[in-house]
């Protein structure tokens, strides 16, 4: 995959921004890790995290634990097809008000606020969200197995509850 990426021209964009698919980032960082350490990402995870901490964490799920993994269910049918378009920012790679730092959102986005300007993380498909906040010295992760419709407020409500509990 990294050879394919190396031979692929960057997507042409009308100004100084470069466009690459979000999934390319993992392949590229994995190759950097492999070249620096001689180990592939799943081997690094096992050697430095999973095995020493006896943690159930893998990159690539072993067949022996498949029965423990939740099934992902499809999203309910969207009644309003225009909802799929969302508000969006046509023709813009990074919408106004969103800041990135080495692949992470800094304090979220207008539709996915985090705790503070010291928060960094990323949301993902299915309404998932993971972030840390240096000021609050806390990490947060939310995953689910029910695919979400385009406007999914579950992670936002959980983040707001976390923020409320930290203020209490």
Mean pLDDT: 77
Radius of gyration of CA atoms, rounded to a whole number: 19 Å
Structural class: alpha+beta
Number of H- or I-type helical stretches: 4
The outline comes out as globular
Describe the protein's architecture and organization:
This protein has 168 residues and is α+β, with helices and mostly antiparallel strands. The protein has a domain at 72-168. It contains 4 helices and 5 strands; from the N terminus they run αααβββββα. It has helices spanning 2-7, 24-37, 41-53, 154-167, and strands at 99-101, 104-106, 119-123, 129-133, 138-142. A 5-stranded antiparallel sheet has the order 1-2-3-4-5, with helices on one face. The longest helix has 14 residues, at 24-37. Mean pLDDT is 77; it is low at 81-93.
